[in-house]
Amino acid sequence: MNVDIGNAVRKNEEAETSEERIVLETKDLNFYYTPEVKTLKNINISIPEKKVTAFIGPSGCGKSTLLRCFNRMNDLIPGVKLEGKIEIDGQDIYSPEVNLEDLRKKVGMVFQKSNPFPMDIWENVAFGPKVNGVTDKVELEELVVSSLKQADLWREVKDRLKTSALDLSGGQQQRLCIARALANKPEIILMDEPASALDPISTNKIEETIEELRANYTIIIVTHNMQQAARVSDYTAFLMTGDLVEFNSTSTLFTNPDEKLTEDYITGRFG
Amino acid sequence: MKSDFKKKIERSNKISKAVISFGGYGVIFSIIGIFLFLLYETIPLFYGAEIDTALSFKLSKKKHVVLSGVDQYKELSYLISNNGEIDFFNLKEKRITKKDTLPLAANEIITTGVRNSNGDISLGTDKGRILFFNLNLKPVFTGSQRRIVPQLELKKSFRSDVENPADNNGIKILAFSENDDGVLYWAWVNAEDKLLLKIYDPDEEEYFDFSLSDNLENVNVTALALNPDQESLIAGDDKGELYLFDLSDHSEPDLLDNWKAADFKITSLSFLIGNNTLIVGDKNGNVTSWFEAREKGSDELKYREVHTFKKMDSEIVNVVPSPRNRLFLVIGKNGKVELNYSTTGNTELEFSENKSRVLSASFAPKADGIFVVNSKNEVSLFKLDDEHPDVSWKTLFGKVWYEGYPGPAFVWQSTGGTDSFESKFSLIPLIFGTLKGTFYAMIFAIPIALFGAIYVSQFAPKRFAKIIKPTVEIMAALPSVVIGFLAGLYFSPLFEHHLMLIFLLSVLAPALFLILISFWGMIPERKRRTLPAYYELGFVLFVMAAVYYFSSIVSLPLEKIFFNGDLKQWLYSSLNVSYDQRNSLVVGFALGFAVIPIIFTITEDALSNVPASLSSASLALGASKWQTVKRVILPAAAGGIFAGVMLGLGRAIGETMIVLMATGNTPIMDLSPFDGFRAMSANIAVEIPEAPVDGSLYRVLFLTALLLLVFTFIINSFATYIGDKLRKKYARY
Question: What is the ipTM of this complex?
Fold first, then answer.
């Protein structure tokens, strides 16, 4: 049922593509892990606001690397080099004026493997607001509750907020990580293969959660599961060996791709 | 083929399992073995006194024995009867092997006798005569044969009352002693109840006679004790009063003091070995001990009551001090005998002489036997087994009032210069010393090790971490004797000479750091980001050098202005704080140096082992690096950090060489960081050469070792337990 409604909505929205606001834009982005290895080559992509954008491509194509450029998580790796520009709301996030903490508050992230902190559930969700300076108890409580509700976890954990997050199931842990990201009130949520380590039922839950979040957040999701990309995203980017092969609306890309390479990939001829 | 291969695997599995199990169980068993061995060596300390009848027989002829004793091998005994006969009774052959007779007049009867540890004997008779002779039971070896040969030498015999010889001035109570200079003292009470004194001065070869009764009007002296070391005489009367005479001026004895020591007639007085403790027994069976000590806030030495012993249910007729230690026998009129230990006030044991009076009781010269003659003409030799009367839970862990101290205290002083020295075995100063050293080491080591580990694992560029970690680990390989040597011989004097500088550094370094760090913060972030990592390190080194330079310039002038040019002197005169060169600060520094690598390495590992996914999650939520470390990484590594600190603590407690060399090994209990201390481990090392096998000290050292083992065992178990709990709570990633 949900999926049908989603498709309907999506079709409706496709008509308005021209009016969409671009929230994130890369310009001639090159990325090197080492001076010899160019992982991303000349990427130009514009991510529309409040849409779900999926990055697909074979392993090692650079889709996760690209994603991690958006909240500068790659900075942590010594020796990396980045050329070109990434602008969020028109602001180059790699310019020296940018405060890294503020950027990451604005651009939340959910990792491939769920990584809740070894604290209780409440503390996990409140972590982001706390480190970003929210001290008011009432405000924190509201943030925790609303984030858990948005992540569709509230019903399951409301009676055990003070128990360790590590006692939750894998799927619940991942949704907790989504709630944790939401508590920061981000504009953009980066999801790096959020369901790849989960069973189908949990995966379905995560997808439902994404479905509910799409109205309020710009979501960029990396997945190697093409069905998932087809199910949840409005737009899909296909990357290969560091090149952005095609970026198109999901329905177009999966039904009538512009590029031969894309067609070969989605039809399973390689990868 | 295949089954051969499988068999091979199975066999190697079995072998490796056996070897590994053997290793594991071997470790456990050897620890238990060490523990049991220490316990085995320690336990005899807490055995009580035991007494066994070695020999008992009845004399064939009725005798009234006034004095008796045995030789050191407990083979030959002598019995002096009141008619002047001396029988030498061989205890092995159970027969009289020799007889002697003292030169008494007809019908003259010996009324009282005293023997000192040299074998000098004084006897008083009912005709007012005092006989002074030496009786020694000497072992003579012919080949492997041992024979005890009695030697009797009459030294002097004199009329007790020279001025007015009469028949009725027989001697009722007699005291005799001899000091190291050969001065002889006799004090006695005659039949007229007069207290008389005779002193022989060997330098002037002259006798001095005094009547002390002029000083004591209406006093009926009932007991006497002479103290040759302090040259004093103590007389007790029938009202329980004691009178102290000073005899140091041989021409003029002087009544110094008198005080009430009992509520009843004093019947027995005796000094114990060392001539400090006086035992007072009264008619009602009360036994108390006294010695001279200063009252708090007074410089005057006065006799003070120290212990009250178990009450006897009859009059105390005699107190017999042990020739070896502070044991003494208390003999009741009803034939009961108590063995007491004066330092603790304990009654070690008691026994009874089957409803007959004890005529004479004495210790064997090695205090390993008691020789008793009773009024039924029964002679008994008891084997006494009381190896460690000086050690009990109370002396080890409680306050004990030792001779000469102003009050009960925790004292460790195992050996002294004289035979009569009493070992003082309080473990409290040693435990205190261990804890004090550990404390100062830990407050020095923990911050450096923890912050160092945090820096290296979280903030330092990989290149630095690769150098720093192995370097710190080399610190751990440094032999502690080298650290101790440096600390004791180099750093202690350095600290002392540059005390002001050290103080300044410890205050200024952190302060200046904070100030300059805020300057660092003023460099714009984007500029800072582009600076190479070694700028940070360079900055730190620069600040360190600057602080040192600045401090060394201002320390001397500051010391002149504020502390009259000498901080050490100022501490002493203004704050009454004394400064030992080898003090707790130096030890804290040196011991800390040994502990830092342990805490650092384990903490660094624990921090580095926190999965990157956790810090990524935190950073991705907009937490700064420091917030991530504080809120995520430190809690997640808490178990490992705790274990590291605890292991460091265990090392500090057990460390020996450093505390041995860098403290003064003074077993004092003082919190001041400028005083030394003595740690348990160092104590073992210091005292080993002084401890004869199976002696009290020897066993107490084993007890110290056992305590150390228990300490470290508890700390390590606690560390494991808490570490596990923390890991369960925070580290299930």
Answer: 0.89
Minimal Cβ distance to B733: which of A76, A101, A118: A118
Q: What would the mean pLDDT of B203-218 be, rounded to a whole number?
A: 84
Does A48 lie at the interface with B, CB-CB under 8 angstroms? no
Distance of CA B429 to the CA centre of its chain: 9
- β-pairing, B424-425 vs A243-249, is unpaired
Yes or no, beta carbons of A101 and B624 under 8 Å apart: yes
**Residue A257 to residue A226: CA distance in whole angstroms:** 14
Rg of chain A (C-alpha set): 18
More confident residue, B463 or B30: B30
B611 touches chain A (CB under 8 A): yes
Mean of pLDDT over chain A? 88
Check whether B522 has a pLDDT greater than 80. Answer: no
Residues B96, B88 contacting (CB under 8 angstroms): yes
Tokens 């002392």 sit on residue: B496
Nearest CA distance, A225 vs chain B (angstrom): 23
Burial of B215 (0-12, 13-18, 19+ CB in 10 A): middle
CA distance B174 to B196: 10
Amino acid letter, A74: N
Q: What is the pLDDT of residues A47-100, one digit of tens each?
A: 999 999 999 999 888 999 999 999 999 888 888 889 999 999 989 998 888 888
**Residue B674 corresponds to which tokens in the numbers above?**
């400028």
What residues pair up with B650 in beta bridges, in sequence order?
A: none
Q: Rounded to whole angstroms, how far apart are CA atoms B26 and A107?
A: 58
Q: How close does chain B come to A65, measured CA to CA in Å?
A: 14
What CATH number was assigned to the domain covering residues B428-496+581-730? Answer: 1.10.3720.10
Domains and CATH numbers, chain A: 2-266 (3.40.50.300)
Structure tokens at A248: 């198109």
CA distance A185 to chain B (A): 10
Mean pLDDT of A209-217: 91
Task: State the alpha helices, DSSP H only, in B354-461.
Answer: 393-397, 428-454
Q: Which of residues 491-530 of B touch A (CB under 8 A)?
A: 524-526, 529
Nearest CA in chain A to B530: A96
Per-residue pLDDT at B29 exceeds 60: yes
As given in the structure block, the two tokens for residue B50 are: 């035991």
* CB within 8 Å of B45: residues ≥ 6 apart: B388, B391, B392, B696, B699, B700, B703
Question: Which residues pair with residue B153 across a beta bridge?
Answer: B134
**What's the one-letter identity of residue A249?**
S
Q: Environment class of residue A159 by beta-carbon count within 10 Å: exposed (0-12), middle (13-18) or buried (19+)?
A: exposed
Cβ atoms < 10 Å from Cβ of B99: 9
Inter-CA distances, B720 with B454, B610, B625, B712, B729, Å: 22, 19, 30, 12, 14
B617 and A180: CB-CB below 8 Å? yes
Distance CA B247, CA B582 (A): 45
